[in-house]
Design goal:
The chain has 334 residues and is of the alpha/beta class. Helix content is 44%, strand content 14%. The strands form two sheets. A seven-stranded parallel beta sheet has the order 1-9-8-7-6-5-4. A two-stranded antiparallel ribbon has the order 2-3.
């Protein structure tokens, strides 16, 4: 059965909006709900801040340029931890009768390395030892976070999704230095794969990786241990789609980001989105009934930039399309 889900982020900045986001996700994506992120609440609630909140072996603080490694956790790091605990409290309260599959999202090691600064400046990416230490600390943080979620929610399984929007730039050597005048050196694929492998190994039995940018290294991600791929279909070329087809043929999860993540004009119809997916499967030579159980329908990216009304509507649309694909008769992929 094809299911629906979301990438992670959600609009809103108030506590009551967070509680509402959890309710909508649980109600409209019941087969694969996720822990929402509301980055409008501040840096502590964004993708990087939330991920750093799971890391207990290193300290961080927030500077004008962003997050920085420190000897001990700063006040912003402690706030990020408190906010994550608060969000998990909401999730726990609203999932008392939930026993299905749940998804949580964290930034991957290379997006962290390209974003977080060393104590004396410049990105962790610039220092081989520092990026290694950060990746290993993240692996332990992911495992601890997963254990915490399992204690709170009686889920059948918890899927961990690593977000790696910066990975293509890391591989291309296009991450800017602190001055903005240079670029950090390319990190070679074997090192990229090794660090990803440490984290993916601690992320449960079927970890995912999400990237909604261009040139994501899907095959490298699979070889590093990803058992689910999630991306924005609108930016994918033929090679990306071939990599997704290979994952489906291997029996792995594939999340198709096909519903607009920001308010569209005009809004796509349920029929149009369903037919888009069916045409795609036909081009890839895949029968809907043979891959249906591995497909997940999601928005193209996070919903933080959408209006609350469209965030809800996009979630409803994903669910409707997933339901349509689950009931498509064999041979209708045209």
């Amino acid at each position: 059965m094809t299911v629906s889900s979301g990438v992670g982020s959600w609009p809103g900045s108030e506590a009551e909006e967070y509680a509402e986001a959890v309710r909508v996700v649980l109600g409209e994506a019941p087969d694969l709900p996720y822990l929402p992120e509301l980055p409008e609440r501040g840096a502590e609630a964004g993708m990087i801040g939330r991920t750093l909140a799971t890391i207990g072996d290193l300290g961080f603080d927030l500077q004008p340029a962003g997050w920085r490694l420190t000897d001990t956790p700063g006040i912003d790091h402690r706030r990020a931890r408190s906010l994550l605990a608060h969000d998990l409290d909401h999730l726990e309260e609203q999932t008392q009768d939930f026993h299905g599959v749940l998804k949580v999202q964290l930034a991957g090691p290379w997006t962290l390395a390209a974003t977080v600064e060393k104590p004396r400046g410049d990105k962790v990416l610039s220092d081989h030892g520092a990026r290694r230490e950060l990746a290993q600390a993240l692996a332990e943080g992911v495992a601890a976070h997963l254990d915490d979620v399992r204690r709170r929610v009686d889920a059948e399984r918890v899927v961990v999704q690593l977000d790696e929007p910066a990975l293509p730039a890391v591989l291309a050597g296009s991450v800017p230095t602190a001055s903005g005048f240079g670029r950090h050196r390319t990190v070679h694929p074997p090192e990229v794969s090794e660090a990803l492998g440490w984290v993916l190994e601690r992320a449960g039995v079927e970890p995912w990786v999400h990237s909604c940018g261009r040139d994501a290294p899907w095959r490298l991600l699979r070889s590093a241990g990803a058992r689910g791929l999630s991306g924005d279909l609108s930016v994918m070329g033929a090679d990306d789609l071939d990599a997704f087809a290979e994952a489906l043929e291997a029996g792995e999860w594939v999340a198709l980001g096909i519903v607009p993540a920001t308010d569209p004009d005009p809004e796509p119809t349920e029929k149009a989105v369903t037919e888009h997916v069916l045409r795609l499967l036909d081009v890839l030579g895949l029968e809907p009934d043979t891959v249906s159980d591995q497909l997940v329908i999601t928005p193209a990216c996070g919903l933080a930039g959408a209006s609350p009304a469209w965030a809800r509507r996009a979630t409803e649309l994903c669910r409707a399309v997933a339901r349509n694909l689950s009931t498509t008769p064999p041979g209708d992929a045209t």
